[in-house]
User: Which sequence fits this backbone?
């Protein structure tokens, strides 16, 4: 039998990490041996969850050369894997993004459904097939659902996300206030953690012959961060803009406690575009909008506007 790798995009977040662990278990229980591996470094939130529950870290791989087939979880974007994964080796993609490049993977069976977390799609497979899921996988998947839905307050959270969370928690048995513990853990952006978070969670898009970058951080205490470090944030994103030769870039900072979204850029063209699609006003280099607006909600609006 061919050697199968289950992986996610480079530097995966908790959704990707939870997804590869749980889908690996699902494949094993349905008769397919596989190996878990990640490229790059895990996001801080994923590290926190693995450490919190004393779960082992996935093996680090450099690329797909030692594998015959690859399953991609939580990504269908060339930017996330190109140069590391041979596209023709990808036999399956499970993702949840409206904007994707699944058609670039010629041999892949594709499942893309617009739920708020890829963990929801993975967990549904266990539930629908009536396959017992381990507590470890249930904990990881539930944590990913809580994170991706901003504790079920996100603008694209679905009833499927809520239903699967109830199913998972019967097995995971997380503490009632775990969501706050999780959010507080990812709110520490002291020192170099700020630049690592911004650059590590940067999404790049090619839309209408324009290159766009959106960085996203989710935390408690965005206003304090803006007061103390907005100039540093702008310096970081402008450096990324130059290095990646981007036409537009901004940071979306989501306050999980106040349920508010802050948008940061000092580039006039970027600010004009963001103002138009989100109906916000910038005061200097900062705009605010009530509610939690995730990057996956913003990117389709950008696509629609730029392709007019």
Assistant:
């Amino acid at each position: 039998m061919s050697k199968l790798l289950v992986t996610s995009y480079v530097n995966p977040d908790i959704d990707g990490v939870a997804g590869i662990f749980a889908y690996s278990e699902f494949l094993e229980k349905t008769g397919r041996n596989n190996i878990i591996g990640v490229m790059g470094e895990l996001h801080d939130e994923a590290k926190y969850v693995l450490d919190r529950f004393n779960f082992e870290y996935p093996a680090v791989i450099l690329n797909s050369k030692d594998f015959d087939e690859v399953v991609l979880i939580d990504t269908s974007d060339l930017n996330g894997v190109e140069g590391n994964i041979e596209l023709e080796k990808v036999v399956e993609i499970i993702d949840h993004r409206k904007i994707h490049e699944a058609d670039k993977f010629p041999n892949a069976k594709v499942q893309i459904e617009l739920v708020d977390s890829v963990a929801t799609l993975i967990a549904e497979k266990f539930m629908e097939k009536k396959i017992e899921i381990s507590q470890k996988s249930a904990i990881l998947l539930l944590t990913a659902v809580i994170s991706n839905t901003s504790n079920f307050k996100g603008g694209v959270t679905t009833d499927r996300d809520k239903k699967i969370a109830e199913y998972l928690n019967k097995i995971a048995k997380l503490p009632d206030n775990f969501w706050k513990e999780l959010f507080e853990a990812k709110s520490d952006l002291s020192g170099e953690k700020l630049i690592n978070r911004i650059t590590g969670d940067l999404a790049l898009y090619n839309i209408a012959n324009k290159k766009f970058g959106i960085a996203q951080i989710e935390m408690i205490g965005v206003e304090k961060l803006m007061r103390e470090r907005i100039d540093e944030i702008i310096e970081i994103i402008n450096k990324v803009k130059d290095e990646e030769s981007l036409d537009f870039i901004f940071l979306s900072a989501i306050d999980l406690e106040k349920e508010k979204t802050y948008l940061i850029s000092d580039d006039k063209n970027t600010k004009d575009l963001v103002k138009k699609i989100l109906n916000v006003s910038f005061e200097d280099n900062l705009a605010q909008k009530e509610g939690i607006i995730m990057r996956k909600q913003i990117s389709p609006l950008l696509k629609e506007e730029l392709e007019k």
User: Anything to note?
Assistant: The two ends are 48 Å apart (CA to CA).
